[in-house]
Amino acid sequence: MEMKKALAIIKLFLFLIGLALIARADWLARQEALPLDPEPEMLARLLPGAEGSPLILKPVPHYPGAVTDAGRVKKAAGLATARLEPTVKGYVDQINIFFVLDEDGMIRGIDLIADRETPYYMDLIKSSGFFEKFIGQNLRQGFKGIDAVSGATISSKAVITDLEAAAASAGDQLFGISVPRAEALGYVRIVREPRTITLGIVLLLGLLTRYKKFFRWQREVVFGISIITVGFWLNTPFSLGHTFQLLSLDFPGSGNPRLLILGGFVVITTLLAGPLFCGYLCPFGGLQELLYRFIPVRHWNVSGKVLRFARELRYLVLFLCVAGYFGLKVHAFAEAEPYPHLFSLSKSPLAWLFILLTLLFSLFLKRFWCRFFCPTGAGLVLLSAHRKYLKAIARGVEDSEIDPGASV
Fold first, then answer.
1. Which of 339, 371, 368, 370 is nearest to 355 (CA)?
2. Short-list 159, 160, 154, CA closest to 196
3. How far is the C-alpha of 75 from the C-alpha of 73, rounded, in Å?
4. Within 10 Å of residue 224's Cβ, how many Cβ atoms?
5. pTM for the full model?
6. Any idea what DSSP says for residue 18?
7. Pairing between strand 107-115 and 63-69?
């Protein structure tokens, strides 16, 4: 009993420290606006000679300059997307890109000034050579041969669409380059897209399975559907990175309704019914459970003491991730989970070693990652803390099977 009291005090202390770190990071972020303009080094590198020029505000904010092409000197302008319309919005928030446009409508240079995007997705984009593909693209022919980055599809597509529109607007006003502009998709049209509708259907299936069972393998079938759709096709598993973005008060824009829908679903259902997403929809949790159920190996018997230890270990992992991300500003702590790497088909050997080891242990221990280490699951259990007063929430936590020490 004394040990339980001591653990409770320690957890409360760590919880308060975590809240303080999050609040401090949010306050500092609000004080520090997204940088609008390039550093002198970037300006000199992409538009030599313009580093001493002031920003000209009309007809659009730009740095005037010139570039040389086959011995011919051309007028050019350096532009930051944060100062143009439309601003580039990624999976979660704004991405400020500096690019150089010449008088013929060609992109002569490009670089990232700053962003508030989910760090994992931006790391994928930057490491893929995505931005370099814009160099040499011409507004008159349209941007061609630039494919979305696997694992960061929404962010990269948003950059392509918004950058092309911003460049077309600037080219028209600065150099008289008139090109047809693609009509921006409205929020309603995006919601009606097959991918968004599919996500809604899968979430409803999970919700239905929680309360009504029609056939024996219903839960396993829904897990299988979620792995294929939410995991690999949509690449929208609710992860620690998304949780941290929401805690940072960086809410996804209307151009990304799938994250809005998923995040809202996870938070609301957790408050009303416990961690329903973990128990019935999480693609990685489902993959672990299916491996455990259908791969014929001898399962390990785990004592109640080990399960209680697992429960406390998971909270420690959550605290370390919060401290690392919000306190130390190390974005890698938002990626300390195997499933974003799996469903984005990561190219990192270390990430795949992480994934394979987790899945290997899941053959022998039911939902190994969920029960022993998952910081997102630990956060959702904390969000279900009012289960002591509501039986429906307590039943939801128990059904999710991700809080093993609670009933041991």
1. 339
2. 154
3. 7
4. 15
5. 0.77
6. H
7. unpaired
Q: Alpha-carbon dihedral of residues 24, 260, 278, 22, nearest 10 degrees?
A: 0
In the chain, the amino acid numbered 201 is: I
Write the CB contacts of 184 (distance below 8 Å, at least 6 apart in sequence).
86, 161, 165
Q: Pick the range with the lowest mean pLDDT from 68-72, 114-118, 142-146, 322-326.
A: 114-118
Task: Report phi then psi at 359, rounded to 5.
Answer: -70, -35
Evaluate whether 202 touches 194 at the Cβ level (below 8 Å).
no
Place of tokens 């077309």: 168
Q: What is the Cα–Cα distance from 149 to 151, expressed in whole angstroms? A: 6
> Which strands make up the sheet holding 95-102, listed edge to edge?
63-69, 72-80, 95-102, 107-115
**If 0-12 CB within 10 Å is exposed, 13-18 middle and 19+ buried, where does residue 397 land?**
buried
C-alpha 73/C-alpha 108 separation (Å) is 13
Q: Which pLDDT band holds residue 89 (cuts at 50, 70, 90)?
A: low
From CA 83, how far away is CA 342, in angstroms rounded?
Answer: 36
Exposure class string for 226-242: b at 16+ Cβ within 10 A, else e: bbebbbeebbbbbbbbb
Strands, E assignment, 19-119: 63-69, 72-80, 95-102, 107-115
d(CA 372, CA 338): 13
Rounded to a whole number of angstroms, the distance between the first and last alpha carbons of the chain is 14
For the stretch 315-373, pLDDT in tens is 899 999 999 988 888 878 888 899 888 988 888 899 999 999 999 999 999 999 999 99
Q: Parallel, antiparallel, or unpaired: how do β-strands 107-115 and 72-80 relate? A: unpaired
Q: Answer whether 207's CB lies under 8 Å from 276's CB.
A: yes
Contacts of 334 (CB under 8 A, 6+ apart): 118, 119, 120, 240, 241, 244, 321, 325
